[in-house]
Specification:
single chain; binds zinc ion; flat; alpha+beta; about 50% helix; 3-stranded antiparallel sheet; 3 domains
């Protein structure tokens, strides 16, 4: 039976498709802008010239449709032409040998067959080859003219021509060994050393912890990333000043769960993931406690912009959590964790482009449940 795609792979594929890295997707984007705009312009014109006085409201959107559609048609046309004549190159994936034709200017491309991230340069003749990270050993598919990049697993600054990476070091607080300053985890004792992914170390100018960086991760890289995200959530909890900031932490818990599901595809990591689950529960417990406190302090009937409470409304982390619960069903509770997380903790009502929290009874009882669980843990 073919397994359903992980949430992470769905996210990565959506991301890559949004980037127009092949002629096909570039043309698709151009043509859909063009088609939509022509329809809008023609529709607007029909309403304008055929419509009757009776439909006043429609009459006033007609000129907007015509002008917007007209501008869109020009943009769509230019976009389509540019994408039709942009030079392409053919690249071969060293993992599965699949060949894809992509735009020559594309520097990062996820193999459509096996999902391997390919880091490319400008020389059309060079195919990516595997190169090992000097710190963590991760094999990355890269052409020698790609330049510098952050190791997807450990964050170490690497160079595609094999020259020495970042040489600055730090002392691991866990085992006191010297490790590169830029790395996410200590490979000797597993301590997380970097939890801030807003910007890379200064030395890594031009590199980012972006989606492409994440796509290059191995399963164990995803595991370390999830641990780092959890650490980051715990560090930022005391600093969160309002419910909007707390939602960002909820999002990070969600990302950590998504990476954990990805890591669990490697069955050899599952024992370590099981051990990580109570840490997820403790961290999440802190987030929902804070969420409850902040909701209680909100002025009655406080309204937000319509999309500002979307994280509370959709609880995006729950789907990822369900998938992990499915995998670790039996061990979740006996492993010291709380087991299944409840969903629909908060009711968000949207009206007149505003949204507000109308009910959080579910959140109150979930916070109590976590508190009782934590108290029992201490008693043991
Ligand atoms: Zn491949
Ligand atoms: Zn590495
Ligand atoms: Zn260490």
């Amino acid at each position: 039976m073919e397994e359903e795609q992980t949430l992470y792979m769905q996210q990565a594929t959506t991301y890559q498709n949004s980037q127009d890295r092949t002629k096909k997707s570039g043309l698709m984007t151009g043509l859909s802008i063009l088609g939509g705009s022509i329809l809008a312009a023609v529709g607007g014109a029909i309403i304008y010239y055929v419509g009757t006085e009776a439909c006043d409201r429609i009459m006033c959107i007609a000129p907007i449709l015509m002008i917007g559609g007209g501008i869109g048609t020009v943009v769509g046309l230019i976009w389509t032409i540019i994408n039709a004549i942009r030079p392409t190159k053919s690249i071969r994936c060293p993992q599965c040998n699949n060949e894809d034709r992509i735009y020559s200017s594309v520097k990062k491309y996820m193999c459509t067959e096996c999902g391997t991230m390919l880091l490319l340069g400008s020389n059309k003749e060079l195919d990516p080859q595997f190169s090992a990270c000097a710190y963590c050993g991760l094999q990355t598919a890269v052409t020698e003219d790609h330049g510098q990049f952050l190791c997807p697993d450990c964050g170490f600054l690497r160079y595609s021509d094999g020259s020495e990476g970042d040489t600055s070091t730090q002392e691991c607080p866990g085992c006191k060994k010297n490790v590169p300053a830029s790395v996410i985890f200590c490979k000797y004792c597993n301590t997380i050393l970097r939890a801030d992914f807003s910007a890379p170390p200064v030395a890594a100018f031009g590199c980012e912890y972006d989606e492409d960086w994440k796509i290059g991760k191995s399963k164990s890289g995803h595991f370390q990333f999830a641990r780092a995200l959890l650490k980051s959530v715990r560090e930022h909890l005391p600093l969160s000043e309002d419910i909007l900031e707390t939602q960002k932490l909820l999002d990070q818990v969600g990302q950590a769960l998504i990476s954990t599901e990805e890591a669990s595809q490697d069955t050899s990591l599952r024992e370590m993931i099981e051990k990580l689950m109570p840490e997820f529960d403790i961290t999440y417990s802190g987030v929902i406690e804070l969420e409850l406190k902040q909701l209680r302090e909100l002025p009655k009937k406080k309204k937000f912009k319509s999309d500002q409470l979307d994280t509370l409304l959709n609880e995006p982390f729950i789907l990822a959590r369900r998938r992990i619960e499915e995998l670790f069903k039996e061990s979740l509770e006996k492993g010291g964790g709380i087991g299944i997380w409840n969903e629909k903790l908060v009711t968000v009502t949207k009206d007149d482009s505003k949204s507000r929290v109308t009910n959080f009874i579910g959140l109150e009882s979930e916070v109590q449940r976590f508190a009782a669980w934590k108290a029992a843990l201490k008693g043991k």
